[in-house]
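Worked example 3. Consider a protein that binds zinc ion.
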Amino acid sequence: MIEQLEELKTRALEELARIQDLDRLEEWRITYLGKRSELNQILRGIGTLAPADRRTVGQIANDVKSVLEGESAARRAQLEQIAREAEIARERVDVTLPPRPIARGQCHPLSLITEEIVAAFRALGYDVVEGPEVEWDKYNFEMLNIPAEHPARDVWDTFYVKTTDGIPQGQVVLRTHTSPMQIRVMQARRPPIRVIVPGRAYRYEATDATHESEFYQIEGLAVDEHITMADLKGTLTAFAHAVFGPERRTRFRVDFFPFVEPGAEMAIDCHACRGSGCRICKNTGWIEIMGAGMVHPKVLEGVGYDPAKYTGFAFGMGPERVAMLKYGIDDIRLFKTNDLRFLQQFR
Ligand SMILES: [Zn+2]
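Given these inputs, the predicted complex is written out as structure tokens:
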């Protein structure tokens, strides 16, 4: 029986040494240390031995049992450690892997051109101001010399805003141009005034390749003593040189806007064909850039300025149009379709 125990111990330890995973270890435990194990049967049979042998065999059997228990516990600890390390290795983050590229954003072409235009006027000493897009009729029309029933209102198809709290309907509009800021600025400041007003405006128009119901406008205003048409021409020519190149020539022709007198339309010679005629300039050699003019005396009087003392000029342009001309874009709707193939050309 002692030999049987020794043989059992040797066999069990050999098998134990070959075990590589915890499932096999559990099977081994059931085989050698479980209730129905050989060892357990020997232990239970001890009582049938002669009293002289009981003690010796019992001691050896218990020694074998404790050796097997100790060794298997050690093996279990070893295997658990290996399993943990394998799991850590599986989950390890390789910090040396190159990162996935992060898509880099960029300014929208309208932001770029607006910044460029604004910078050209800042260099001439203009402040940038912004105003509300939901505007009083009196600022959008009345105080700009466009009273109700004035035929010029037909030029601006207006979105009216439904009012509450006792404000009569028809008094609040989505501004149709950034010109109302002329009035707000003149009311808030005293001359000399030099401001540039970038912002959004709205007109109830069908959308096509050159019209959008929501668009941007950049308004400018200069008011001081002794300002003349020559200042207007010099200022806007400096702008044209800054944005379209120093060799540009400018042309001013008479135009009508109710809030200026005289009014002018400014054009530059075509930067694409240098005046010989092409698709961009519709074969005229000239490109209309903006409307401008000397501030109407009625507008000055309306804000409490003495038109005998103060004069000024105002202008307004569409940055969409400027960008389309500068970059050769043929459809205004491209600015809003969020097509990356279009937008990524303006890095
Ligand atoms: Zn041309």
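Take a moment to read the result before moving on. The two ends are 90 Å apart (CA to CA). Residues 163 and 169 are 6 Å apart (CA to CA).
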